[in-house]
Amino acid sequence: GLVAIYEQVQPARGWRPPDGFTGRLAFKLAIAVAGLALTSLVAGLATAPFGAHHFQRLAPYGLLANLAAMPAVSFLVMPFGLIGVLLLPFGLDGLAWPVMGVGIDIMTAVSDKVAALPGALMRVDGIGVASAAFAGLALCCLCLLRGLLAVSAVIPAVLAVALAGAPQRPDVLIAPDARTVAVRGGDGRLSVAGAGSNRMAVSQWLSRDADPREANDPSLKSGFSCDRLGCVAPLPGGGTLAVSLKPEGLEADCLEARLLVTSADPPEKCPAKVYSPRTLSRTGAVALYRDDAGWRETPARDGKVQRPWLPLVAPEPVPSTGTSDPEADALQ
Predict the structure, then answer these.
(1) Which region, left, alpha or beta, applies to residue 34 given φ > 0 means left and ψ of -120 to 50 means alpha?
(2) pLDDT tier at 320 (50, 70, 90 boundaries)?
(3) Which residue among 121, 134, 169, 317 is least crowded, i.e. fewest CB within 10 A of its CB?
């Protein structure tokens, strides 16, 4: 994107500064600021769709932060970083690092100030794989094609916007430790049991949900009723989810819950659909979606797909459960 833009602004290199020292100085300063602004703007626009897809957030003040921090980077951080490397063989690099550190402190202070501005962080939802892919295709068409052909970038750009609608969100999320579970409530927000066991997973779930709450927010527990034996929460569409913390509560949870998450070994015949460390070790984290046909399970790891960085795990034999719940049967 930057190369394509720089090619388009090449005619500006022929502009001549006005006469006089003050005019030339102002002209060069304006060109430098405009170049930095253009570079930051293009880079921000080119990476925004992918940042929104992967991190569910946008930084609308990125241009402001880059412009404010660039003098410190250009005159302190980069030059004295290079000087420090050159002085390193002579043992004199200690003269450069403090100056570079001042520049880094300025850059960090600017970042903190901009991040504290109202609306500095926008959480977004709905930028799926298809939308991000069409956005990337639009950028490629815009950068690689010339003349009227470049106008064809409008087509994938429109498709990217059209496909950026809110995707279906999971109604239940289960972490691989079988201790951290999230259920979507009637208000559309997630409630979490066992958030302290896996704060990283909870933070990722909330981020993916465009939810501004932190993993330690007390309101995350609102959808669960807990006692010393475990926690229960109502499921969308009826039924309950049980998180069993003690072995003595497993038998009752098996009979009363539709979905059971436990770190202990469940009874041999359990009517509920059970998620335990043994089953989750094969699937990884699990997302469950409720639709008109019932429950649909999406594991993080597909046991039928062999990836070079993961050992192949044989599928677990399905035991006879004796369940009479058709929706639980569909998930077995």
Answers:
(1) alpha
(2) very low
(3) 317
